[in-house]
Amino acid sequence: METVILAVVIAVVVLAVLGGLVVGSRRQKSLPPPPPTTPDITAPPTEPHIGDEAETPRDEPRRTIEEVDLPGGRASGTAVEEPPAPEIPELEIPEPTEGRLVRLRARLSRSQNALGKGLLTLLSREHLDEDTWEEIEDTLLTADVGVQPTQELVERLRERVRVLGTRTPEELRALLRDELLTLVGTDVDRTVKTEPADRKPGIVMVVGVNGTGKTTTTGKLARVLVADGRTVVLGAADTFRAAAADQLQTWGERVGAHTVRGPEAGDPASVAFDAVKEGKEMGVDVVLIDTAGRLHTKTGLMDELGKVKRVVEKHAPLDEVLLVLDATTGQNGLVQARVFAEVVDITGIVLTKLDGTAKGGIVVAVQRELGVPVKLVGLGEGADDLAPFEPEAFVDALIGD
Ligand SMILES: Nc1nc2c(ncn2[C@@H]2O[C@H](COP(=O)(O)OP(=O)(O)O)[C@@H](O)[C@H]2O)c(=O)[nH]1
Ligand SMILES: [Mg+2]
Q1: Which residue's CA is the closest to the ligand 1 atom numbered 14?
Q2: Fewest Cβ atoms nearer than 10 Å: which of 15, 200, 214, 271?
Q3: Which of these, 273, 289, 91, 293, lies nearest to 194 by C-alpha position?
């Protein structure tokens, strides 16, 4: 009798468990979580336990192979307990630099609409009266071309339009293109000097106010050089935050460029010195030095940048000092430019964030201000969104096809 009762009890328990499993697996079916579009790397790796197959915890969708995206493409379906061993990053092959500005010309659409199209529309008016010329002037000023260049351009346009008499849209376009090109300047050497004839490595220092895009530009420039077949060492002379050096190092690792860094809050000049020293020892072609821009007083700036320059030049003279300016800051950028130019000899300008502004005329203004050519332009946050500045391609982008 007792054995019968025991058998019944066991049977009931077994049925209850099986029932639970069935319900569990049904529940699982009714729970297909939409696969997240981005992998949740914060979720702990799941380890199979008894019962896992039957029921998925509702608060934690099971990860599938597609959802796991390990760096370096080492995705695998097996869950691991240990964090993955440090990856040797796969080297990227940057895009060739040839024709980048043409590829990125659509990014100048804001400037194109505000400046190029605006001017063409105004010039196409049947009667070019005083008011229209004033509007043309305003358009140029609003695009940050600057007062002096604006007056020059308007004067020349007025004269040429008068001589022309009747005008076709093609004639006007050609005329405007010509005059804008004259303002931007076609006869200046805009190559970034990285290869002195008599020694290696070439030394480039990147300066500018915090947030203008110095580190990004240094990283992008490293890619440009690598794309052109050169070897590069990076010097992280922004020692204010470890994150700044990390940021630069990440850029370097992507293309196989070694980054020299010092202790946090260490001496920027000695990092720069060491970078050139290591570059020499490694026999690389170019050393790029990223600097800090977090300098509140002109004296502080003088002291620090001046010292970096002096110390580096114990190795060899700097081949290029690039001033990075944020095109969206307009006249403020010009004030900054002036201060930097007093501290170090700027040899080239990098205008960043031209993709986010209608003020493409700043190219003209800043060259006038410093008497130094714009050599590179930043047209986006992408790794290859830095282009050599070509006046023709730039003006063509402004006035459209
Ligand atoms: N849209 C756009 N953003 C840029 C460009 N250049 C840099 N940036 C962004 O500007 C921010 C500051 O850049 P960073 O290099 O850290 O500036 P730094 O403080 O001068 O070193 C970052 O978010 C960059 O992605 C550009 O040409 N276009
Ligand atoms: Mg920086």
Answers
A1: 213
A2: 15
A3: 289
Q: How far is CA 96 from the centre of its chain?
A: 16
CB atoms within 10 A of CB 132: 14
Distance CA 240, CA 264 (A): 6
Compute the distance from residue 199 Cα to the ligand 2 centre, in Å: 28
The angle that helices 362-370 and 330-343 make with each other, rounded to 10 degrees, is: 20
> Residue 101 in contact with residue 389, Cβ under 8 Å?
yes
Residues that place a CB less than 5 A from ion ligand 2:
214-215, 244
- Residues within 6 Å of ligand 1 by CB: 208, 210-216, 293, 352-353, 355-356, 378-381, 385
pTM of the model: 0.78
CA-closest residue to ligand 1 atom 22: 213
Q: Write down the residue that tokens 């940021």 correspond to.
A: 247
Tell me, in angstroms, the distance from the centre of ligand 1 to residue 6's CA: 75
Q: How far is the CA of 355 from the centre of ligand 1 (A)?
A: 11
Ligand 1 pocket test: pick from 108, 215, 216 the residue with the most ligand atoms within 8 Å of its Cβ. 216
CA of 171 from ligand 2 middle (Å) equals 46
pLDDT tens, position by position, for the chain (401 residues)?
555 555 555 555 444 444 444 333 333 333 334 444 444 444 444 444 444 444 444 444 444 444 444 444 444 445 556 666 666 668 888 887 788 888 888 899 888 888 888 999 999 888 889 999 999 999 999 999 999 999 999 999 999 999 988 788 899 899 999 999 999 999 999 999 999 999 999 999 999 998 999 999 999 999 999 999 999 999 999 998 789 999 999 999 999 999 999 998 899 999 999 999 999 999 999 999 999 986 667 778 778 899 999 999 999 999 999 999 999 998 888 988 898 998 899 999 999 999 989 999 999 999 999 999 999 999 999 999 999 999 999 999 998 87
Q: Alpha carbon of 46 to those of 40, 65, 79, 86: distances in Å?
A: 12, 13, 6, 21
Query: Which residue's alpha carbon is at the smallest distance from atom 17 of ligand 1?
Result: 213
